[in-house]
């Protein structure tokens, strides 16, 4: 089973579109109302595993302050407002789709921030810290951004959103941290890192695929009736990600060393769509399905673009220095 889950996790470029297609077909041929009962279980399956491997202590470590400041400035002072503007431009008469675009921009970083930074041979330590800080700040700030930017256009239940954030983020974070400490105490740090930690992202992927399937299945009839909506959603998403990549690349090239610049790019472009999707589906009732559709489609652009960006990091930031080999010992 673990090998299958690992293969799914390594091939998100293919598995997410495949699951979306499966959800679409399922939603066309079957009554999907019962799927709503699976949202909370799959949400927990999606969020809890990534919390088990979260390294909260990294927040206290220094050494990359400039990269961290640039990252969070882009994450909270730039990207949400770009998303809001695009939502107003493209979804002026469909406020819940505009909400989905905003939610997709509000919770930065995910486990994939660390993974893609590693693939591109960037600064992993900086990426870990960006992930922890971005997740916590984004979770706290999301209700306030939604109220301030969308409160005049959609019905916003601040208390409800805060409760959902607590259930979706902070409860799994607490349980995940407790699980992490238990496994370390039982198996040691090395045993946890080598034997247990690699398994949890695979479980999280299963939750992501399940939630994406549900989100598309619930909207399948509406998509079939208005297929042009898909292009109408993908265009502003592509613009949002394009602006994000461009800004983070320019800032990284101008102000940061190579490793930090790559971490900055993935620390700002990779959004925690899992949490955004869970908030949309749990906090906004039936109307949240429009927002969920936007976020589900964002997975396609995010995963595909991240994979392609790795291929261009050498051109954009220079090739990573080759690892030095120790000189042979003389007898």
Would you kindly provide a written description of the structure presented here, covering whatever features stand out?
Helix 3 runs antiparallel to helix 12. The longest helix is centred in the middle third of the chain and has 39 residues. The chain has 13 helices and no strands. The chain is an all-alpha fold. About 2% of the residues have low confidence. It has a single domain, classed as Up-down Bundle (Na+/H+ antiporter like fold). It is globular. 79% of the residues lie in helices and 0% in strands.
Brief rundown of the structure:
With 331 residues, the chain is mostly helical.
Please render the helix and strand layout as text.
Layout: H1 2-10, H2 12-29, H3 39-52, H4 65-90, H5 95-106, H6 111-119, H7 124-150, H8 158-196, H9 199-225, H10 228-255, H11 258-269, H12 273-283, H13 288-317
GO molecular function: antimonite transmembrane transporter activity; antiporter activity; arsenite transmembrane transporter activity
Membrane topology: Multi-pass membrane protein
Subcellular location: Cell membrane
């Amino acid at each position: 089973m673990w090998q299958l889950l690992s293969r799914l996790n390594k091939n998100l470029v293919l598995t997410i579109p495949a699951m979306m297609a499966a959800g679409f077909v399922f939603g066309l041929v079957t009554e999907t109302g019962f799927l709503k009962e699976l949202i909370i279980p799959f949400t927990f399956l999606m969020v809890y595993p990534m919390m088990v491997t979260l390294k909260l202590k990294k927040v206290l470590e220094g050494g990359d302050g400039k990269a961290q400041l640039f990252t969070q400035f882009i994450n909270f002072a730039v990207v949400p407002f770009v998303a809001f503007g695009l939502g107003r431009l493209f979804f002026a008469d469909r406020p819940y789709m505009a909400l989905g675009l905003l939610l997709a921009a509000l919770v930065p970083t995910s486990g994939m921030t660390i993974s893609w930074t590693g693939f591109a041979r960037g600064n992993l330590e900086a990426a870990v810290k960006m992930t922890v800080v971005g997740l916590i700040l984004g979770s706290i700030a999301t209700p306030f951004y939604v109220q301030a930017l969308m409160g005049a256009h959609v019905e916003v239940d601040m208390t409800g959103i805060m409760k959902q954030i607590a259930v979706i983020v902070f409860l799994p974070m607490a349980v995940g941290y407790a699980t992490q400490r238990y496994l370390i105490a039982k198996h040691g740090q090395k045993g946890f890192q080598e034997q247990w930690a690699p398994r949890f992202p695979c479980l999280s992927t299963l939750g992501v695929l399940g939630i994406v399937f549900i989100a598309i299945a619930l909207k399948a009839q509406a998509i079939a009736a208005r297929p042009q909506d898909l292009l109408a959603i993908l265009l502003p998403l592509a613009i949002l990600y394009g602006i994000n990549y461009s800004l983070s690349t320019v800032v990284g090239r101008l102000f940061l060393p190579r490793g930090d610049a790559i971490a900055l790019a993935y620390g700002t472009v990779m959004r925690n769509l899992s949490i955004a999707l869970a908030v949309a589906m749990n906090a906004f009732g039936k109307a949240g399905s429009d927002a969920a559709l936007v976020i589900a489609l964002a997975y396609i652009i995010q995963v595909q673009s991240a994979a392609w960006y790795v291929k261009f990091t050498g051109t954009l930031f220079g090739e990573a220095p080759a690892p030095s080999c120790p000189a042979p010992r003389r007898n």
